């Protein structure tokens, strides 16, 4: 899955247009990385949380995840809490930490705000190729880190933590 997620995130980063993630429920681990791969993240207040579960389950966080988190989570304290405390953040807490751009009342409002923002951004009539190149420059650390394969090795990375699905090892 790691290589497929890297490929998807690479595709999102190279798109010649702004991207908006509308989060309607939980976004944990790869789900959080997928959401943060967008330029804008909107999340409903009444359901779900953002969560990097790796600490709780004993997995090593891939370096390219950390590179993306560094680019998207502005405060070093917030980054520490997300990665090393495995803090579960609802929409309002994530907005206060500037991890999401907007906390919306519910699913319908999240969609409405995403559409409104999309129309606003399209109305700017930016050059798509220029937008994509600027995003790639902004996320150059992520693009560089994604070039290295850090597929999780269950035996190496989780054998001592005691967490793994029955029969996997």
Automatic annotation (TrEMBL):
One of its GO terms (molecular function) is delta(3)-delta(2)-enoyl-CoA isomerase activity. Keywords: Membrane, Transmembrane, Transmembrane helix. The keyword Transport does not apply. The keyword Iron does not apply. InterPro entries: ClpP/crotonase-like_dom_sf, Enoyl-CoA_hydra/iso. GO terms for cellular component: peroxisome. The chain crosses the membrane at residues 20-42. This is Uncharacterized protein.
